[in-house]
Design goal:
- The protein is of the alpha+beta class and about 475 residues long.
- It has two domains: about 300 residues, no CATH class; about 60 residues, Dna Ligase, domain 1 (2-Layer Sandwich), CATH 3.30.1490.
- The protein is about 30% helix and about 25% strand.
- InterPro entries: ATP-dep_Glu-Cys_Ligase-2, CP_ATPgrasp_2, UCP005522.
- This is Circularly permuted ATP-grasp type 2 domain-containing protein.
C-alpha cells in the first residue's frame, strides 16, 4: 500500500478536486502528451524562463522542468491554508518589529536572546528604525507540505526575498495556452493579479516624505544572479524600473535614480540584493552591488526598502522553532498551521538524539537554502551519513534536524505516463496597508522517483497550482 497521501486518488477513487482531470489525462494519447510537453518547453525557452546554477560547469542557465499536470485545492482547503498563512505572516512581522525595538518576547523568556542577537541575519544597524506601517517583511513565502487530507505543515518561512513567483505566473499562462478547454470546464481562481497587487502593496508603504505617486524600483544584483529573469519579469509586469546599484545614488535626504531626463527621486526599493551588499558604507565595504549611503536615507525615513534589512532573522531555521510561540505571544491565538517537529543541534540533548538517529532524519543548515548543505538520512549512503556526522559534530549549532515527512504526492507526467511524485507549496503573501494572499502559489515537484527534494537546483520541477472557485 502507498505510504504517502495521494492528492488525486483515495482508495482507487478520484478525489473531488481532481474529478474533471481523470478523464482529461486518461483520454490523452502519448503522442499528444509529448507534443504538448515539447510545446511547453519551447514556450519556456522563447520567453527565457531560466534559472542559474553556478560552479557546476557547463551552461549555467537552464530551463526549469515544467509538469503539465496541475495540482488542485478546493476552496475549503485553501481557506484553511489562507488563515494559517496570514496568521503566520502577522506574527513574523510583529516579531521583527519587536526584536528591533524593545525585544519584549526575549524579555518574557519566550525566545533565547542569543538565538536572535548572535544570529548572522540579525542587523544591529536596523535597531530603532520603524519602517512605514511597521512592515518589515513585505513579501513572505511560506513553504508548506502536506501529509494527509487535513494535515499541512510549515516547512520553513522566507521573509527576505522569496523567489519563484515568476514561475507561478508563467505556469498558469502556459497551461492556459496549452489546454484552454480545461479553464472553460473548471472554475479556477486567477493569479494574474499578483503583479498589480505587488505594485499596490509597495506603493502603500512609501515613506512619509513622499508627497506624490511613489516611484518604485526593483534593485537587482544584475544578469548573473540566479533569479535575474524574475527581477526583469516583475519589473516589466509592474511597469517599474529595474536598476542596479550603479543606477542609484544618494544626495541630501533621498535616493535618486539616474535617467536620461536627469535624476529622479526613488521612494520604494524592492531589493533583490542580500543585506550585506546593499550599502558599502554600512555593511560590506567591498560591495559593488549596493548604494553608498542608502541606510542613512532609510534610517531618516527618506526611502522604503522592501523587505527591510535584517528581516532574515525571522526566517532562520533555528528561529523557525519558535514561530508557534510568536503566534501565541503577539496574537494571543493558537497556530492554524503546525511546524514540523524540530531538533536544534546546538542543544546537548537534541544533538544526542540526532546523532543516535541520523540515518532516519533530515538535517539542514540553519542558514542553508536550495536543498544544499542537507542530509536526507533515509536516502543517504552509510558513507554520506558518516561524513555528515563529522560536519555536525564540528559545528552543532549550525544545524537543525526534522523527521522525514511522508510528503503527499501529485500525479505527474513522466516518460512512461502518469506517476505520483512528491510536492510542496510556496504561496506568496503581500504585506502593506493590507495583507493579501494570491489564491495559488508555486508547487514544486520532485521529478525523480522517490525523491523528497523539490528544489530546482536539485532536479525538481514546477506545476501550475489551482484553487477551485466556489
Amino acid at each position: 500500500m502507498d505510504a504517502f497521501f495521494n492528492e488525486m486518488f483515495d482508495g482507487g477513487q478520484v478525489r473531488a478536486p481532481y474529478a474533471r482531470l481523470g478523464d482529461w489525462t486518461g483520454s490523452m494519447p502519448d503522442e499528444l502528451r509529448h507534443l504538448k510537453q515539447a510545446e511547453a518547453e519551447a514556450l519556456f525557452r522563447r520567453i527565457g524562463i531560466t534559472f542559474a546554477v553556478y560552479g557546476e560547469g557547463g551552461d549555467p542557465d537552464r530551463l526549469i522542468p515544467f509538469d503539465m499536470f496541475p495540482r488542485v485545492f478546493t476552496q475549503a482547503e485553501w481557506r484553511r491554508l489562507e488563515r494559517g498563512i496570514l496568521q503566520r505572516t502577522r506574527a513574523l512581522n510583529a516579531f521583527l518589529a519587536d526584536v528591533y525595538d524593545r525585544g519584549e518576547i526575549i524579555r518574557a523568556g519566550r525566545i533565547p536572546a542569543d538565538l536572535v542577537h548572535r544570529n548572522e541575519a540579525f542587523e544591529p544597524a536596523v535597531m530603532g528604525i520603524r519602517p512605514p506601517r511597521g512592515v518589515y517583511s513585505h513579501i513572505v513565502g511560506i513553504d508548506i507540505v502536506r501529509t494527509g487530507p487535513d494535515d499541512f505543515f510549515v516547512l520553513e518561512d522566507n521573509c527576505r526575498t522569496p523567489s519563484g513567483v515568476s514561475y507561478m505566473l508563467e505556469n498558469r499562462e502556459i497551461m492556459m495556452r496549452l489546454f484552454p478547454a480545461l479553464f472553460r470546464e473548471n472554475r479556477i481562481e486567477p493569479v494574474d493579479g499578483y503583479s498589480e497587487a505587488l505594485r499596490r502593496t509597495l506603493a502603500s508603504v512609501a515613506p512619509r516624505k513622499c508627497d506624490r505617486e511613489p516611484t518604485i524600483v526593483i534593485l537587482t544584483p544584475g544578469p548573473l544572479n540566479s533569479a535575474y529573469y524574475e527581477h526583469s519579469f516583475l519589473a516589466d509586469l509592474m511597469g517599474v524600473e529595474l536598476v542596479e546599484g550603479q543606477d542609484l545614488f544618494v544626495e541630501g535626504e533621498f535616493v535618486w535614480m539616474r535617467t536620461t531626463r536627469g535624476p529622479q527621486k526613488v521612494d520604494v526599493i524592492y531589493r533583490r540584493v542580500d543585506d550585506h551588499f546593499i550599502d558599502p558604507l554600512c555593511f560590506r565595504a567591498d560591495s559593488m552591488l549596493g548604494v553608498a549611503g542608502l541606510m542613512d536615507v532609510y534610517r531618516s525615513g527618506g526611502v522604503t526598502i522592501a523587505s527591510a534589512p535584517g528581516a532574515g532573522v525571522a526566517d532562520d531555521k533555528a528561529v523557525y522553532c519558535f514561530v508557534p510561540e510568536m503566534i501565541r505571544f503577539y496574537l494571543g491565538e493558537e497556530p492554524v498551521l503546525n511546524n514540523v517537529p524540530t531538533w536544534q543541534c546546538g542543544k546537548r540533548d537534541d544533538l544526542k538524539y540526532v546523532l543516535d538517529n541520523l540515518a532516519d532524519l533530515v538535517v539542514k543548515e540553519v542558514h542553508g537554502s536550495g536543498g544544499y548543505g542537507m542530509l536526507v538520512g533515509p536516502k543517504a549512503t552509510a558513507q554520506q551519513v558518516a561524513s555528515f556526522r563529522e560536519r555536525l559534530l564540528a559545528n552543532p549549532a549550525n544545524y537543525i534536524a526534522q523527521p522525514t515527512l511522508s510528503l503527499s504526492t501529485c500525479p505527474t507526467f513522466v516518460e512512461e505516463g502518469v506517476a505520483p511524485r512528491h510536492v510542496d507549496l510556496r504561496p506568496y503573501c503581500l504585506v502593506g496597508e493590507q495583507i493579501k494572499l494570491v489564491p495559488g502559489g508555486l508547487t514544486r515537484v520532485a521529478l525523480t522517483e522517490g525523491s523528497l527534494v523539490v528544489n530546482s537546483s536539485q532536479g525538481g520541477g514546477v506545476k501550475d497550482t489551482w484553487v477551485l472557485a466556489e
